[in-house]
Structure formats: C-alpha cells, structure tokens
C-alpha cells in the first residue's frame, strides 16, 4: 500500500495583479510543512506538481524544510482552473478588486455559480478546457501514481480545485459537493490517500498538522 500526500499551495496573492505568487506568509507555511514532514521522518520517493509559480514556490519551501528531496515531475494537468475566466461566464464585466468583505463574498458567490455551470457543461470559460478534460488531467496524475509508485510515499503539490476534484472523484461526490470541498480547503493543507494498483482511498482531507499550535494559529488562511 502506498501513501499519496496532496498539498495545496501556500497563501498566494489574492486581489493582487499577479495571484500566482506566494505571499511571505505562504512561503512560511510551505517551509513549516517541510519541517513537519522532516520531524515525522517522512521520505518521499517521488514528487509531482503543477506548472504554476505558486506550486513551484510551495514545493521549494517544503524542500527547504525537508532538507533535500527528489526532483519533482511537473504535471500540467494538476494546474488550477482560471477563476477569472470562470467568473466572466456569469459576470462579463470586470469585478472591482475584492478589498472589502462584501466584495470578497461577491467574488466567491460568482465563482460558485460559474463553477456549477462549467461542471454541468453549460459554459466553457475562455482559454480553459472542458470540465471533463480538466478532470482527466487530474485523474491521469492519480493513475500515474497507482501505476508507477506502488508501496511508495508520494507528494503532490497542486491547488484547491484539482485536490477537491481528486477527492470528489475518489468518493463519487456530485458537483455541488466538490465545489464546497474546494471553497473550504486551506492554504498548505494536507490531504492523504492510500493507494494500491487498483484504487485510491481517502484517509484525511484538508488537515494542517504543521500549524496545530497556538504559535501558528495566525498562519491559517484560505485564499
């Protein structure tokens, strides 16, 4: 039986011109996770990650905390959907910068609506694959792990959308549940699967064992 650890990237730059960039806190979250893995004696046989900057930066922080690990395999199918393109399908005019609680809530209300329609096949956001193809990119990574890494410990660094989709795929949840899983996943959170050549099994979802102390309580973030 192998173990797959799926990690969401550290806090990115929500509301900035370039979201795809870890904040200073996101860098600390990532490094702290690597330190936690090292303290637990975890040694990864393989690492997969998406091709986004925040994935590479999160991996770098984990690697720094671990003190050396395998060279990661970049798997573009683990990249996040384009939230702006999704929102544009239901709100064609540009949104104001989400710098107030109400604007923040509006952003995520529209994102839920757009995701629902994309997953139903009603819309195809500009520059994005169909939802069927998005899922295929994620399941191809899971299939690779099952096929190539039986009995190994594998780390996968990605984003909230792909990780919640992977969990939804394993559990057979409806689209609405997958969206809710996506909305609740925290930065640098760890999700664990056990796997054999036939299947993946969910063990934990959205945990923060590396931040489970009063010292790190203020490090817990969602966006």
Automatic annotation (TrEMBL):
<dbReference type="InterPro" id="IPR051021">
    <property type="entry name" value="Mito_Ser/Thr_phosphatase"/>
</dbReference>
<keyword id="KW-0378">Hydrolase</keyword>
<dbReference type="InterPro" id="IPR013078">
    <property type="entry name" value="His_Pase_superF_clade-1"/>
</dbReference>
<protein>
    <submittedName>
        <fullName>Histidine phosphatase family protein</fullName>
    </submittedName>
</protein>
<dbReference type="InterPro" id="IPR029033">
    <property type="entry name" value="His_PPase_superfam"/>
</dbReference>
<dbReference type="Pfam" id="PF00300">
    <property type="entry name" value="His_Phos_1"/>
</dbReference>
């Amino acid at each position: 039986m192998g173990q797959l650890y799926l990690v969401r990237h550290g806090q990115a730059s929500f509301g900035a011109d370039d979201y795809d960039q870890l904040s200073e806190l996101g860098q600390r979250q990532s490094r702290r996770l690597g330190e936690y893995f090292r303290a637990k004696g975890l040694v990864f046989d393989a690492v997969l990650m998406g091709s986004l900057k925040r994935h590479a930066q999160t991996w770098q922080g984990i690697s720094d905390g671990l003190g050396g690990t395998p060279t990661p395999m970049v798997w573009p199918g683990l990249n996040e959907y384009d939230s702006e393109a999704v929102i544009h399908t239901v709100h064609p005019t540009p949104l104001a910068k989400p710098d107030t609680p109400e604007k923040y809530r509006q952003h995520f209300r529209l994102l839920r609506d757009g995701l629902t329609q994309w997953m139903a096949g009603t819309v195809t956001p500009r520059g994005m694959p169909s939802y069927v193809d998005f899922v295929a990119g994620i399941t191809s990574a899971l299939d690779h792990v099952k096929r190539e890494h039986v009995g190994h410990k594998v780390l996968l660094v990605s984003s909230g959308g792909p990780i919640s989709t992977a969990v939804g795929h394993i559990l057979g949840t409806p689209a609405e549940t997958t969206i809710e899983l996506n909305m609740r996943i925290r930065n640098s959170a760890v999700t664990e699967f056990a796997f054999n050549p036939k299947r993946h099994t969910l063990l934990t979802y959205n945990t923060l064992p590396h931040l489970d102390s009063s010292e790190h309580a203020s490090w817990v973030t969602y966006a």
